[in-house]
Specification:
Number of helices of chain B: 9
Structural class of chain B: alpha/beta
Distance between the termini of chain A: 28 Å
Strand content of chain A: under 5%
Number of strands of chain A: 4
CATH topology of chain B: Rossmann fold
Largest sheet of chain B: 6 strands, mixed
Number of helices of chain A: 17
Radius of gyration of chain B: 19 Å
Distance between the termini of chain B: 65 Å
CATH class of chain B: Alpha Beta
Largest interface: A-B, 22 and 28 residues
CATH architecture of chain B: 3-Layer(aba) Sandwich
Order of helices and strands of chain A: HHEHEHEHEHHHHHHHHHHHH
Strand order of the largest sheet of chain A: 2-1-3-4
Radius of gyration of chain A: 29 Å
Oligomer: heterodimer
Largest sheet of chain A: 4 strands, mixed
Helix content of chain B: 25-40%
Number of domains of chain A: 2
Structural class of chain A: mainly alpha
Helix content of chain A: 55-70%
Strand order of the largest sheet of chain B: 6-7-8-3-9-10
Chain lengths: ~400, ~250
């Protein structure tokens, strides 16, 4: 036991010798991530941004309610601050689409609203330039979501009257009913600011500052492994064998390294947190709805982040155990964290991603760390995420041991 | 004491080891024994299985068959944590040290659970004899090959083992280092300890009481008469293989 404790202490000492370079590297990463998320935040919230994708709407002049629909849809959460709608003629729209001034055109056919009411359902045509497929598919999905929810609600309201007539044995006054409904909607639409979308915060949804702060912290904790390559590349097999002869088997060797690396990560994290806390408290910067506004909150955050640190340190350790080559380990870690970050909603809301990716993201360490950190920043405890974090940590350690055992077997 | 000394320090019986699921048999039938105070040399061409044999004797690898005894006690059935194991010290050919730390830190690790006092050994014991105090504060990364080898030996003998296994200790070392190691090994043997050494160096061959030639997975006794050319010819016989096809053909 004395030998094992000494070994852990020496591993920690060995890793602490690299702390200055880890701190320096992490600081550089922090600057990069801050810049990146700062840009994302500004893009998401700046109402005056003039580089928003433009959606042209082509509709017959006499088509009722198109302008009102555009203004309503553009105020909905999915489309707000993401697109700019512009009513255009077909010829002008076509020309501007070819010039790249418009990203996509929605062409509403004649009698579209009437077709919704009488059930013939004419289709909206969507036009876009060949090179715009990526952004357009994203636009279409988001705008369609917003528009379809509006249309479905309107349609449901109109049809409900027909049901009402049928259930009360009244004659079907379809023509009059349509006229009445359109007149009614026109009246509402005619009222300035009559419809003000009320965006209710969904359960477990966090504000953009919380999301981006949590994303930055979690990605930093995972990415600072890029600066630890030198100290985490596998020890010589001769040294591992000598430890083995002393009764320190593979599992205990990995645990010792894990404990030492965790200690180094913790010190690094506390250094960053102290600097961050000093800037927040002395500079009296707004912390929004986050717990970082007070020293007690910062302390609670520091303690609460331990499970995420456990996971990130074990994940980094696992990567360097699996990939013996230093450069290979760095590249593998970078791309794995980047992909996990993209799939986990670190850069933009996870709701924007396809369902299949969202399902996979639920099992990714970065996503679990992100969910837990977002909750923690708001002063909540996400118990299920916490349990997943602990489970993932054990899984990473298990995989570390497995990697080393397999390598040892191959070497033999 | 006398009863223990009458037993061989280490005895191997019919040790077998193969790789690639039995397709490559490296050790076929290894039998030998070494008495206390004896120095045994194992000679053989590169890749003939010397390191495999040493790692089996040290307890790192498990053989496919056979028995291994240390002072009359069977080792292969025991765990490394059993008290018998610290009586064997192993100095592999590669550097078994923590690269980023200095000599003192490495020694502190191996002497943390040792019956010997690190301070005493550094002032007048084994470590002083190996000249380790001269580079105590030097990082392993900055050490020469000779320093690393001497430090490796210093670490391996921390548990005061009665058997010391060395894999090519003099390889790529200068004469001063070789001399220091040789002096230490002679002293170690005089204390009644056993040395097993895999080597290609003539100086180390002369140090040995008995020599074995590892040939075709079997240990053959070899009598060295001071003719190094004859030994080289004998080693060449062990490596005689079918000529490989030239890649240009």
């Amino acid at each position: 036991m004395k030998f094992y404790i000494r070994y852990i202490r020496l591993e920690a000492k060995r890793m602490l010798l690299s702390l200055p370079s880890i701190f320096g590297g992490s600081f550089f990463l922090l600057l990069l991530l801050s810049g990146l998320f700062g840009i994302f935040y500004v893009c998401q919230t700046d109402d005056t941004a003039d580089s928003l994708p433009v959606i042209g709407v082509v509709a017959p002049e006499e088509e009722p309610l198109v302008d009102w629909m555009i203004s309503t849809v553009s105020q909905m959460e999915n489309a707000k601050n993401a697109f700019r709608f512009e009513r255009v003629t077909r010829e002008d729209g076509q020309r501007r689409l070819q010039n790249g001034d418009i990203n996509v055109i929605f062409e509403i056919p004649e009698g579209y609203i009437r077709s919704i009411v009488n059930g013939s359902n004419k289709h909206v045509t969507i036009r876009f330039a060949k090179g715009q497929t990526t952004i357009v598919s994203f636009l279409i999905r988001e705008v369609s979501k917003a528009a379809s929810s509006f249309i479905l609600n309107t349609e449901a309201a109109l049809y409900s009257l027909q049901d009402y007539y049928a259930s009360h044995g009244l004659p079907n006054m379809q023509k009059e009913e349509l006229k009445l409904n359109i007149q009614f909607i026109r009246e509402i639409a005619g009222l300035e600011q009559a419809i003000e979308p009320d965006i209710a915060e969904a359960e477990n949804a966090y504000s953009l500052p919380v999301t981006y702060t949590a994303s930055g912290i979690v990605l930093l904790l995972f990415l600072w492994g890029l600066t630890c390559a030198k100290m985490l590349t596998s020890q010589s097999s001769a040294f591992q064998n000598q430890l083995f002869l002393e009764g320190i088997r593979t599992g205990k060797q990995i645990l010792a390294r894990g404990a030492a690396f965790f200690a180094v990560c913790l010190i690094n994290f506390l250094l960053f947190l102290s600097i961050g806390a000093a800037v927040l408290l002395i500079g009296k910067l707004p912390a929004g709805d986050m717990i970082l506004a007070s020293p007690a909150g910062i302390l609670r955050f520091a303690v609460g982040m331990l499970p995420v640190l456990f996971l990130s340190s074990s994940f980094i350790l696992m990567i360097y155990e699996a990939v013996s080559d230093t450069l290979g380990g760095i590249l593998f870690l970078f791309f794995s964290v980047l992909i996990m970050g993209l799939c986990s909603g670190c850069f933009y809301p996870i709701d924007y991603l396809p369902e299949a990716i969202r399902n996979i993201a639920g099992g990714l360490p970065v996503r679990r760390g992100l969910c837990y950190t977002m909750a923690l920043l708001c002063g909540e405890t996400d118990t299920s995420s916490l349990l997943y974090l602990l489970f993932d940590t054990f899984l990473c350690y298990f995989l570390c041991i497995l990697c080393r055992s397999v390598k040892r077997r191959i070497a033999e | 004491m006398t009863e223990q000394h009458s037993l061989p320090s280490i005895r191997a019986e019919h040790i077998k080891k193969s790789f690639l699921r039995g397709r490559k048999q490296v050790l076929k039938d290894i039998c030998f024994e070494a008495a206390p105070g004896e120095c045994i040399g194992i000679l053989g061409a590169n890749g003939c299985g010397k390191s495999t044999l040493l790692s089996i004797l040290a307890g790192i690898q498990k053989p496919d068959g056979g028995s291994l005894f240390c002072q009359g006690r069977e080792l292969l059935q025991k765990k490394r944590t059993d008290s018998i194991f610290p009586t064997i010290g192993y100095v592999p050919q590669e550097c078994p040290l923590m690269d980023e730390l200095n000599a003192l830190d490495n020694l502190k690790l191996w002497y943390s659970d040792s019956p010997l006092s690190l301070r005493d050994e550094l002032s007048s014991g084994i470590l002083a004899m190996l000249g380790i105090p001269d580079f105590l504060k030097t990082s392993v990364r900055q050490m020469s090959g000779g320093m690393k080898k001497r430090l490796s030996i210093g670490c391996a003998v921390a548990k005061a083992p009665s058997v010391l296994i060395l894999g090519e200790p003099g390889a790529a070392l200068d004469l001063i280092c070789k001399e220091r190691i040789e002096v230490y090994l002679k002293n170690y043997r005089q204390q009644g300890n056993t040395i097993l050494i895999a080597t290609h160096e003539e100086r180390e061959i002369r140090l040995c009481d008995r020599l074995f030639l590892l040939k075709g997975g079997i240990l053959e006794p070899y009598q060295y008469d001071g003719n190094i050319h004859q030994l080289a010819g004998k080693l060449q016989e062990t490596t005689a293989r079918r000529p490989e096809k030239s890649p240009l053909q």
